[in-house]
């Protein structure tokens, strides 16, 4: 079983409060025009007419050769984090295809795990890759613009205690 996740709430709240992005710049303030603006925190589209932020985001713990940075959208107002129980994120069904890449625990690309796949195949392709024990997570990016969309990892068992 896999869990999809967006940007951590701590990152989202910092940007929504005016923190500098991965390039040290203030997020840009824009107004959403609809479906082309997926929030990387709630993993839903920023509603048409709603305020949003555009910023450079690096979803990695440290600077290193594989720590890609790219533009992302974020609800300007506080939004709820995507919950793993919600299943496949809405934002991963609106483009025709996506780029996926597998990463090791030290956040390095594991060669041979990447590819571009139709939106309908993303869940099965991610599940397939996460059967490889070399991988700690899989990042899902826009196949057209390389923007980070979400992260998938093996689901952690819940305590029944």
Automatic annotation (TrEMBL):
Pfam families: DUF1203 (PF06718). This is DUF1203 domain-containing protein.
């Amino acid at each position: 079983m896999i869990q999809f996740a967006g940007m951590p709430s701590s990152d989202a709240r910092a940007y929504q409060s005016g923190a500098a992005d991965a390039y040290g710049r203030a997020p840009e303030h824009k107004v959403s025009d609809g479906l082309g603006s997926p929030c990387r925190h709630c993993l839903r589209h920023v509603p048409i007419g709603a305020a949003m932020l555009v910023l450079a985001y690096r979803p990695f713990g440290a600077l290193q050769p594989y720590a890609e940075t790219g533009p992302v959208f974020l609800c300007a107002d506080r939004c709820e984090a995507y919950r793993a129980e919600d299943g496949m994120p809405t934002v991963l069904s609106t483009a025709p295809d996506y780029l996926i890449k597998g990463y090791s625990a030290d956040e390095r690309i594991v060669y041979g795990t990447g590819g571009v796949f139709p939106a309908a195949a993303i869940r099965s392709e991610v599940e397939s890759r996460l059967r490889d024990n070399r991988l700690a997570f899989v990042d899902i990016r826009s196949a057209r613009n390389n923007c980070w969309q979400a992260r998938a990892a093996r689901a952690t068992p819940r305590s029944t205690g």
